[in-house]
Amino acid sequence: MEHYPPADHGDRKRRRDCTGAWQARYRDPAGKQKAKNFEKKKDADDFLDDVRTRVRRRTYNDPKRGEITLVKWWDIWWPAQPERRKTTVNRKLSNWRHHIKPKWGEYRLCDLEYIELQKWITKEVKGHHTRRKVLELLRALLRSAVLDGQRIPVNPAADIELEAPPTKHADDLRPPTQEQCTLIREHCAMYYRPLLVFLEETGMRWGEATGLRWGHVDLEAEHVKVKEVLSEDKGTLFRQEAPKTGAGFRTVPLTPAAQEAVRTMVTQWRPKRTVSAIKGNGRDLVPGELVFRGPQGGVLTRHNFRRTWIPAIQAAGLAREVVNRETKRTEWWPRVHDLRHTFATWLKDLGIPEKDVQAIMGHDRGSKVTWIYQHAPEDVASRALAVMAPKEKEEPVRTLRAVAG
């Protein structure tokens, strides 16, 4: 416009593509015409050679597709994700809102660089577990940008490294012994003792035990079926099908002590044998079907039980305060979950095969094919029970009684 004024052509508008002496025109894989201007003919020829090669090899990506911000890409990417468990969805949303979006939301996809992302993960995101989950989400977000018509040529988060998780002293990892578990029960309210016996004798998770329905218990066959759990999300309890992996659906053997614990609570509450379907958001808990409940007959929550557990371990002289090196919060040893570890240690000491222990505990197995074709879950439970509570040797059964209040 400066060198060639409008002259007799009137008030001519400036064209954005009229910069540079040479214009390289080409068509993308979709057949749409594109153009880019250069000052030198050689630069235009080189550019065309490169573009044509990438189009033939199907490695071409339109640079403009990577110029959207990460926030805009999230709005495209997130609705396309497969349906997840409610707790998983909320965790991902929390990591996006509190970590990724504030730092990188206004960056363009093409401007994200490996070294800056690595520095951010290492220096600014606190806690190993949080870093791992945030990085997992960021990698998936950018990996999809590579796959979606190559908005960016490579994933800058793909090779980000995490430091090793903080180590703990062996004392902080060691579960309580069976003798220590007995001591804790003696200092716990009488009402909760059947629950503690059940947790120690079955190794079931808290949500599996408190979500156990009478219809899933078979005392004659001496086992329970783990088919659903109680989970908590933002302080609200809800029902959902048992854990994230297929290993969560399993059969757990019942020792005589575990059977007695179940009978005690069944005598106390007379639960229904029906198993209602999980509908909608799972908020209909149907406590009338549950085996283990709170003292008032409602659903037993982890938060309320801590009010009994912590005084019990303190009175037993076993409580130890442990400061979490990442969060700096004070935690208590032992935890209720450590009863599961006590159970696993017991199975190991009894010499039960590892694949059977994994099946009973609900862990993923190294070889699912071996596990599926060798025996059914009921066989695992019965064979383990033969070792845990042999018929020819009568074991003393703990006397339990439930006391309301």
TrEMBL record:
Occurrences of domain Tyr recombinase (ranges): 171-389
GO molecular function, one term: DNA binding
GO biological process: DNA integration; DNA recombination
Region (Disordered): 1-39
Gene3D superfamilies: 1.10.150.130, Intergrase catalytic core
Keywords: DNA integration, DNA recombination, DNA-binding
CDD domains: INT_ICEBs1_C_like
Pfam families in the record: Phage_int_SAM_3, Phage_integrase
Feature: compositional bias, Basic and acidic residues: 1-11, 25-39
PANTHER family: PHAGE INTEGRASE-RELATED, PROPHAGE INTEGRASE INTD-RELATED
Family (UniProt): Belongs to the 'phage' integrase family.
Protein name, UniProt field: Site-specific integrase
